Amino acid sequence: MTILDGKKVSNDIKTEIAAEVQKMKDAGEKVPHLAAVIVGDDGASLTYVGSKVRSCERVGFESTMVRMSHTTSELELLDKIKELNQNDDIDGFIIQLPLPPQINTQRVLMAVDPSKDVDGFHPENFGRMALDMSTFIPATPFGILELLERYKVDTKGKHTVVIGRSHIVGRPMSILMSRKGWPGNSTVTLTHSNTKNITQIISQADIVISALGVPNFLKAEMVKDDAVVIDVGITRVEDASRPKGYRIVGDVDFDEVSKKASFITPVPGGVGPMTIAMLLKNTLLAREQRSGSKIGQR
């Protein structure tokens, strides 16, 4: 069994990006600039955005955090997005989700300039991804692909089962794993809450990608021997014995499933760190695109 160490790989990627940024600095070029917009005071969102800002500092990016009140109207947020779209100093920006209930999330994401949409959420970028065109791949799926590639996990002709159909992880993963190329060329089954015989389907999978958000959903008896298991789930579970009062739990019963898997991601330390690393990579690609270079993405 091999641990797909997202913490190590993400650090490798950040080191590679930092070297690219240093070349830009040495050549007197503008370095990439990432902005993040956060609306409200959600603790998890603030922690996540703070981590993104620190990662920008590590690789030499410029970064801007835009804080807006939880009472911000949709119109006010759209005005801020327009301002960021028109700011030539900003290469890419993200809108931290979730947004307050008074704001239509889809309308907001549609307003982001696709050339600055480093989250890869805009329909134009999603469509380009589905057509195997150069674009920004959503950071979490991009990170999973990178893990599979760097650990040389064979995906060709394999049966991949994706659990969960979100637009951020499940649906894009189903498209990416079935594309021509590597990682890809697998036969994909996309499962969700209305899938019948889901346990039977999972038991036939060579590769399982779980993005359900249900702690310890995937049990050892549900996966076959030597399956590749990718755990995207991140759930806070109350735990009075921990200093923060909670622990982070994935979708996979790691202790038991790891005894059967050929490759498996831990939680934490698996897919999570990769998400921020690939957001940085998308921002570097956005900078290269805006300076006239080709996007070096799949």
Question: How would you describe the overall organization of this protein?
Answer:
This protein is α/β, with parallel strands linked by helices and 298 residues long. The protein folds into 2 domains: 27-113, Rossmann fold, CATH 3.40.50; 139-272, Rossmann fold (3-Layer(aba) Sandwich), CATH 3.40.50. Helix content is 39%, strand content 16%. It has 10 helices and 11 strands. It has helices at 6-26, 43-59, 74-86, 105-111, 123-130, 139-150, 170-178, 198-203, 254-257, 271-290; strands spanning 2-3, 33-39, 62-68, 92-95, 159-163, 187-191, 207-210, 228-231, 235-238, 246-249, 263-264. The strands form 3 sheets. A 6-stranded parallel beta sheet has the order 1-11-8-7-5-6. A 3-stranded parallel beta sheet has the order 3-2-4, with helices on one face. Helix 2 links the parallel strand 2 (33-39) and strand 3 (62-68). Helix 1 runs parallel beside helix 10 and helix 6 crosses helix 10 (271-290). The longest helix has 21 residues, at 6-26. The two termini are 29 Å apart.
Helices and strands in order:
Layout: E1 2-3, H1 6-26, E2 33-39, H2 43-59, E3 62-68, H3 74-86, E4 92-95, H4 105-111, H5 123-130, H6 139-150, E5 159-163, H7 170-178, E6 187-191, H8 198-203, E7 207-210, E8 228-231, E9 235-238, E10 246-249, H9 254-257, E11 263-264, H10 271-290
Parallel strand pairs: 1-11, 2-3, 2-4, 5-6, 5-7, 7-8, 8-11
Antiparallel strand pairs: 9-10
Helix pairs in contact: 1-10, 6-10
